[in-house]
Amino acid sequence: MSALLSASGLQVTFPGRRGAPEARAVDGVDLDIKRGEIVALVGESGCGKTTLARSLLGLVPPTSGQVLFDGSPLTYRGKALKAYRKRAQLVLQDPSGSLNPRHTVYDAVAEGLRIHGYTGDEREAVANALSRAGLRPPERFFLRYPHELSGGQRQRVVIAGALVLDPELIVADEPVASLDASVRGEILALLLSLRADLGLSALVVTHDLGLAWNIADRVAVMYLGRIVETGTVEEVLTSPQHPYTQALLSVLPEAPGDPVVLTGEPPDPSRIPGGCRFHARCQVLDSGEAERAGVAGDCRRTVLPVLSGGGERQVACHWASAKVRG
To answer: Where is the ABC transporter domain (predicted)?
Structure first.
């Protein structure tokens, strides 16, 4: 299956303050999203997930690398970018912050149509989008304001605002993080039904591996600006190879054994350590397992290659690679 969206060698840097080194928020990423596929991009806060997602949407131009959409290079300016944003839509995590409190639901959903000069029946398009998002009958919501809706209803309005343009790709940044547990399942089920009914592709940005398990076909685990493990959701979440992925999974309620407590905070992206970028916090290196496997020196000094963007199982870890060879 061909990739709908493909990033190659993507890098996004931000200048440092007062002569400080530049921050490498995204530091070499290859990532493919196939048609009709849901990919979960997971990792701690500050690992670069949101910056990567915004760059894929054309909101943050990359410092280097390239994004292809439907085989064509993404242009970060002019009419081409506007046309792309009709085909790829962003769904933010906080529906209260995404919706203008002075706009009715109808105006919120119709905004995209007006920006892109839609010439069809606006009322019908808005009604269809609200209906697809699970707000039925849609006419009942036209004149309501965001404060009159529940959190789940507001998130459905945000999703309807994306659907109204008939996109091919949705990038959902923590789509259920601000919702009650009782509502999260409904929104996840909605995203799955949209994929089944409309053939939508989706990149779901999340720190929640449980969410990834419930919705994704494939998982990409990100740490300090780079993807460190990727594969199908079953491969990665039932048999994690990278110590960072193992640590993230260990804190889930159903995980066996004791949670892995990582020491310290993720390093500053302006001062990325040599060798494996996770080595300063790695429980495998700290426990002596990497030393026994004969790779401790590599962990500290040898830089790992960028993982390819395809769907095959991959891990950027000297210790995991040594286990496979052994």
So the answer is: 10-249
> How many Cβ atoms sit within 10 Å of the Cβ of residue 317?
26
Could you tell me which residues are beta bridge partners of residue 223? 226
Q: Which residues of 269-305 are buried (b: 16+ CB within 10 A; e: fewer)?
A: bbebeebbbbbbbbbbbeeebbeebebbebbbeeebe
Structure tokens that stand for 320 in this block:
């995991």
Residue 122, phi then psi, degrees to nearest 5: -60, -45
The span from the CA of 311 to the CA of 219, in Å, is 9
Residue at token pair 């605002």? 161
Homologous superfamily (CATH) of 3-239 is P-loop containing nucleotide triphosphate hydrolases (3.40.50.300)
Angle at 231 between CA 303 and CA 45, to 5 degrees: 65
Q: Name the amino acid, one letter, at 191.
A: L
Neighbouring CB atoms inside 10 A of 263's CB total 9
Both tokens of 109, joined, read: 């959903």
d(CA 213, CA 36): 17
The reported pTM is 0.94
Distance CA 55, CA 173 (A): 13
Mean pLDDT of 119-133: 97
Kindly state the DSSP code that residue 178 receives in the 8-state scheme.
Answer: T
Q: Are 20 and 29 in contact (CB under 8 A)?
A: no
Q: Measured in Å, how far apart are the chain's first and last C-alpha atoms?
A: 33
**286: which residues sit within 8 A by CB, 6+ positions away?**
263
Whether the Cβ atoms of residue 46 and residue 227 lie closer than 8 Å to each other: no
The contacts of residue 310 (CB under 8 Å, 6+ apart) are: 32
pLDDT single digits (tens) 264-316: 778 889 999 999 999 999 999 999 999 999 999 999 999 999 999 887 899 99
- Residues 119-151 as b/e (b if ≥16 CB within 10 A, e otherwise) read eeeeeebbbbbbebbbbeebeebbebebeebeb
Would you call 201 helix, strand, or coil by DSSP? strand
Specify the 3-state DSSP secondary structure of 148.
Answer: helix
